């Protein structure tokens, strides 16, 4: 059959409050033209993030009732630990309340001024946690990944030649670890090939540098490997995921993505000494090692979610639903990153609004107009999120100006996605009338969360 149906039935529903364009205009002004500051009840379709926004299954809710809330030695922790070990194969499993907590603990131990952390592309909280410790975060994305209009199977890969050059320039002793993000979120949700994972691992072994995955969307990445690397077509997603982790020394994960839960994460490690130091910091910042900032019921939900996410019927539906939205947009001429990735469709704001320069934040202009037109919340991934200033205060822009439409897992139906496409097409038709924005307030780090804007004159 050509139609890929949702591999689930809906048992519980949540009402959507509909707003008018006039109401949304006032809401947007009150929020300082920043979708992060809009109240969720004022959003019709929320595509701000796929993090923590999944609909949990009946089995996950059942597991919540089994949660053991013992302070130490909770049986729910051992369910969680076994589920994570089954996939990662790592020795030490440290629970955290979400992925950024795992990053904070890891980089607080290994990071310091004068250190460098290379990646294919660091996402916002990863970069912030690295830079907070005085380290430098560097992105070594393959060249094809910097060109939204060009199609390739694995545009999320790290440039291995550049990695070797980077290590030789900075010195292996100044690089506490190499991190590979799967899938590559900032790079358009693009997958990383198994071949690239192997090659990065080999380089790390050669220079004796630990190799970590940012594994938020490991299952989606594994499914792309199954679809696009011929040697893996006959393997299960679980087998592929296990092989991915087998080349690594550790991982961080926000379970709010591919573990299909609303809160949770972990840090997994093989190094005994590093694990001990991380657990000590965990106790200070998160909680005892067998709950790590989570309730027992949350640990149970994560454990069950890690089983459900490797189901290939679910992943087929998940990847196809993203592709479906991408097809509707490209048919209308809307420029996006092609091919579509695993969790979101990314609009190429440079091509969408060629008349708006980077210093007037074309992505932010599109994000505001999408909300104004249809009550859809999205997020800018460009000069607002990743822009920096030089010594003269001039904006240094990242390679791409993007708008991410992140699709929550198991939440919206095809009619919701059709509505999203209709709104985007209407905004695109009106693109010549869109103007840029200026920042009126910004925090020194992670400014996109709280910044205020006004339309540029």
Short description:
The protein has helices at 21-30, 58-64, 75-88, 99-110, 124-132, 160-170, 194-207, 218-228, 237-246, 272-285, 296-308, 312-331, 349-352, 362-374, 383-386, 414-429; strands at 45-46, 92-96, 116-119, 136-139, 178-181, 211-214, 250-254, 265-269, 344-348, 376-377, 379-381, 388-389, 395-396, 402-406, 437-441, 452-455. The protein has 457 residues and is α/β, with parallel strands linked by helices. The chain folds into 2 domains: 21-50 and 311-455, Aspartate Aminotransferase, domain 1, CATH 3.90.1150; 58-308, Aspartate Aminotransferase, domain 2, CATH 3.40.640.10.
Describe this structure in words.
- This protein has 457 residues and is α/β, with parallel strands linked by helices.
- It has two domains: 21-50 and 311-455, Alpha-Beta Complex (Aspartate Aminotransferase, domain 1), CATH 3.90.1150; 58-308, Aspartate Aminotransferase, domain 2 (3-Layer(aba) Sandwich), CATH 3.40.640.
- The protein has helices at 21-30, 58-64, 75-88, 99-110, 124-132, 160-170, 194-207, 218-228, 237-246, 272-285, 296-308, 312-331, 349-352, 362-374, 383-386, 414-429; strands at 45-46, 92-96, 116-119, 136-139, 178-181, 211-214, 250-254, 265-269, 344-348, 376-377, 379-381, 388-389, 395-396, 402-406, 437-441, 452-455.
- A five-stranded mixed sheet has the order 2-8-7-6-5, with helices on both faces.
- Strand 12 (388-389) and strand 13 (395-396) form a beta hairpin.
- It starts with 20 loop residues before the first helix and ends with a strand.
């Amino acid at each position: 059959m050509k139609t890929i149906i949702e591999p689930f039935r809906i048992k519980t529903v949540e009402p959507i409050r509909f707003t008018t364009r006039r109401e949304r205009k006032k809401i947007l002004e009150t929020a300082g033209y920043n979708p992060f500051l809009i109240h969720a009840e004022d959003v019709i379709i929320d595509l701000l993030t796929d993090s923590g926004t999944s609909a949990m299954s009946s089995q996950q809710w059942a597991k919540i009732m089994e949660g053991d809330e013992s302070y130490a030695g909770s049986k729910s922790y051992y369910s969680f630990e076994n589920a994570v070990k089954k996939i990662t194969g790592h020795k030490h499993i440290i629970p955290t309340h979400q992925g950024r907590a795992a990053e904070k603990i890891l980089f607080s131990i290994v990071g310091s001024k004068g250190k460098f952390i290379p990646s294919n592309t660091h996402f916002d909280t990863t970069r912030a946690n690295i830079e907070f410790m005085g380290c430098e975060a560097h992105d070594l994305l393959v060249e094809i990944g910097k060109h939204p209009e060009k199609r390739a199977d694995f545009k999320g890969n790290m440039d291995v030649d550049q990695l070797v050059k980077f290590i030789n320039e900075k010195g292996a002793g100044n690089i506490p670890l190499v991190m590979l993000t799967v899938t590559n979120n900032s790079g358009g949700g693009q997958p990383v090939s198994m071949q690239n994972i192997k090659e990065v691992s080999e380089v790390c072994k050669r220079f004796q540098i630990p190799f970590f995955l940012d594994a938020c969307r490991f299952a989606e990445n594994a499914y792309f490997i199954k679809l696009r690397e011929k040697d893996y077509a006959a393997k299960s997603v679980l087998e592929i995921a296990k092989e991915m982790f087998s080349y690594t020394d550790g991982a961080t994960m926000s379970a709010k993505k591919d573990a299909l839960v609303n809160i949770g994460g972990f840090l997994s490690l093989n190094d005994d000494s590093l694990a001990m130091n991380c657990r000590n910091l965990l106790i200070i910042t998160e909680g005892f090692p067998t709950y790590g900032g989570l309730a027992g019921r949350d640990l149970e939900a994560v454990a069950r979610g890690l089983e459900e996410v490797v189901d290939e019927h679910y992943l087929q539906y998940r990847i196809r639903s993203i592709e479906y939205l991408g097809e509707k947009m490209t048919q209308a001429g809307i420029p996006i990153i092609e091919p579509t990735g695993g969790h979101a469709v990314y609009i190429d704001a440079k091509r969408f609004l060629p008349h708006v320069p980077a210093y007037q934040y074309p992505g932010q202009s599109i994000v505001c107009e999408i909300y104004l037109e249809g009550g859809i919340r999205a997020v800018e991934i460009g000069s607002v999120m990743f822009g920096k200033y030089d010594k003269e205060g001039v904006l240094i822009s990242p390679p791409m100006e993007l708008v991410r439409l992140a699709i929550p897992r198991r939440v919206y139906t095809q009619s919701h996605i059709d509505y999203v496409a209709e709104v985007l097409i209407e905004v695109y038709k009106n693109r010549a009338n869109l103007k840029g924005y200026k920042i009126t307030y910004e925090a020194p780090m992670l400014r996109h969360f709280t910044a205020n804007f006004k339309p540029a004159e």
